[in-house]
Amino acid sequence: MNDNREDVSNMLIQDVNLAVTLARTLWFNTYRGKVTDELDNYLATLRIIPCLPLDRSEVPADAPEVIPYLLVLVEDAVMEAADLIPFESKLSEVLLPQMQREHFRPEFCHFVYPSPSYMAQGNGSSKIN
């Protein structure tokens, strides 16, 4: 794997084709993902949790209807903060079909990021990592 973070962080995310390699974890219904570009450069590490609605028979009759989605925790990423929206859009296009199953068709991804270390340090950097 090419792990040249400087070269990758200088690319525009909208110009990159993303690939996600998935692995099951030791937790029920939780997956680990590695995001790379077309040259196998590392871009991000993910934890993916499919969120499945309860069966209607298990909720009160007046409970609202909810839709299935993917909770995507971005544990590590190499990109500029300005690339977050293009990254999420491109990653959603890859993840949604890849995680789809016969009885699970997620409609969107909900992205969550750890508190950036630069906020705690107060150095004003705009890098995600």
Defining key terms:
129 residues; 5-stranded mixed β-sheet; 3 helices; 5 strands; disordered N terminus
Shape: elongated
Order of strands, widest sheet = 1-2-3-4-5
Distance between the termini: 19 Å
What is the mean predicted local confidence, pLDDT?
A: 84
What is the element string, with H for helices and E for strands?
HEEEEHEH
Question: pLDDT under 50 segments (min length 5)?
Answer: 1-10
**Total helical segments:** 3
Major beta sheet, specifics? 5 strands, mixed
Radius of gyration: 17 Å
Helix content: 10-25%
> Per DSSP, what share of the residues sits in E-state strands of 2 or more residues?
25-35%
- Quickly give the structural class: alpha+beta
Care to count the β-strands?
5
Notes on the protein architecture:
- This protein is of the alpha+beta class and 129 residues long.
- The protein has 3 helices and 5 strands.
- Strands 1-2-3-4-5 form a 5-stranded mixed beta sheet.
- It starts with a helix and ends in an 8-residue tail after the last helix.
- The model is unreliable at 1-10 (pLDDT under 50).
Brief write-up:
This protein is an alpha+beta fold and 129 residues long. The protein has three helices and five strands, in the order H-E-E-E-E-H-E-H.
Please specify the SSE layout and strand pairing.
Elements: H1 5-9, E1 19-24, E2 31-36, E3 42-51, E4 69-77, H2 84-99, E5 109-112, H3 117-121
